[in-house]
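Appendix C. Worked example: SDR family NAD(P)-dependent oxidoreductase
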Amino acid sequence: MSNRILAITGPTSGIGKSTVIELAHDYDIIILLCRNVEKGNDLKKLLEAEHQHITVDVIKCNLSDLANVMKAATLVLERYPYVDCLINNAGVMSLTRQKTVDGYELMFGTNYLGHFMLTHILFGSIMNSHDKQIIIVSSGAYLFAHLGRRNFKYPLRFNPIKSYGRSKLATLYFMQELHEKFSKDGLHVTAVHPGAVSTNLGKTKYNQTFGNLVYKIFDPLFISPKEGAKSTIKVSKNKNLYKGEYVQEGKITKLKSHGLNYYDRKRLIRETLASLQLDQFMYWEK
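Step 2, the predicted output written as structure tokens:
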């Protein structure tokens, strides 16, 4: 295994782009899993012009469409024997109630379920690599939400703050489950903050007042893309220091009690497997 291989979602803008540009020094092959292929190809040209040693592959991956996620992951398996590091970076924030292709609330379906399915399919490839690393970009927004009972049903009522926070809380539980089950097998999994960069995403002329209020609440969590990438980059370069941890601004940060709720975590995993019609939580042939 001479080539180090990185796969990352949401690499064409914001935190993801800053992360890829910095980590291009450390990897031989970079797989850009992106919704916008045109932007992916632009980034590919930029990276290959700056780094003569790397190969960049652009694969369409729309995390709000599970069939597309499966297709993208299958292409990765067909083209590469392993993936050293998977960075689940992409994320959406919506101020209005929206559905994924599969009928889930958009933020939960994209930020959590899409990445869950991607990781599930690529898991054997990750575990058969040298680095065995998964980095999950979560967010301090988990503070604003508890798991609740209707995560896999389209919500009757919608609160963007709680819905976004719930999707990010789910990613924290996902990280903890991966660590509990597979750290003994050499998996290095870490969750990092932040999960959002300050933008006008979700704002329209129809909800501007409400949108300004929401972004004011989240403002302490919003930082520049370059700053936001620092934690991911630090964890990637020092994987042994951050196994099973939540990292904010490069420092291990203790989660609040509901972010460590064992019973909610186990319930989430059971319901996720049932909803995605999966037989077990991750699998690979040792």
